[in-house]
Specification:
299 residues, alpha+beta, eight-stranded antiparallel sheet, 10 helices
Length: 299
Amino acid sequence: MSLNLGRAARAGTRRDHCERVNRVLLHLRTNPGAPFTVAELARIACFSPFHFHRLFAACVGEPISAHVRRLRLERAAVRLRISGASVTEVALDAGYQTPAAFNKAFQQLFHLSPTAFRRQGGKLLPLPSPTSSTPPEFTRMKPTQPKIVERPEKPAVFVRRTGAYHKSAASAWEAVCRFAYAHGLVEPGREFIGISHDDPLITAEENLRYDACITVRRPVRPEGEIGVQNIAGGRYAVFLHRGPHQNLIKTYEFIFGEWLPGSRAELREAPSFELYLNSPERTRPENLRTGIYIPVKQA
């Protein structure tokens, strides 16, 4: 086999592994509290259980058990922050049989007890400092009351990146746009959607997960790092964010810190997402508009 053929074969193998691990990541996202065995997840990825551990860690950067434990604890931290559920309720929902086991795991990851975390306002990491380019009028703005909409489920191609959102998002969009334009998927009516899975006040920067998604109208097969997922349909409270994308965290802070506690809305099990209404490549930062979709239950 020539050197070039060998490299092509290795690249094809890596793409295949990433595609199969993507199936597991999507399964974990859509079934966040469900019990699982490594053998079950290995079957989803079509790997043998023996090799699955190593292949998952190679693609994701951490072992499967540590990855799932961290996601469940971070999800529990978000619930402690935005809901009135008791620590026991949150512990059981996170898959822990006793509050003591949950407290121990929470303390090991966050170096803080669940009760102390809630007492200090549900924040573990400091807010990022605003950049000098942030227009002063934006720092005084607050989102208006949301519009309640019903959306259909929509399929989308996506690329996931991890790391600081301002870096991972740019890398993910470059990859998914390259694929979508090359395959003629950027059609009229398509939507550019970003899913920021993690709260930067809870999750360490290097573990933040971001999906860059482009909705599609025809079937697309996953290909390497290019995955396919459904953007959940249903009822959403939609907020309009005006200004630079790096200030989205301020709007999220308002939504979950002020609007949600003061409203009668109840969140449902689906990720929030951002619908980008204009292009950062052709729009001044202060003129950017982003719809933030918060999944809510029927009143």
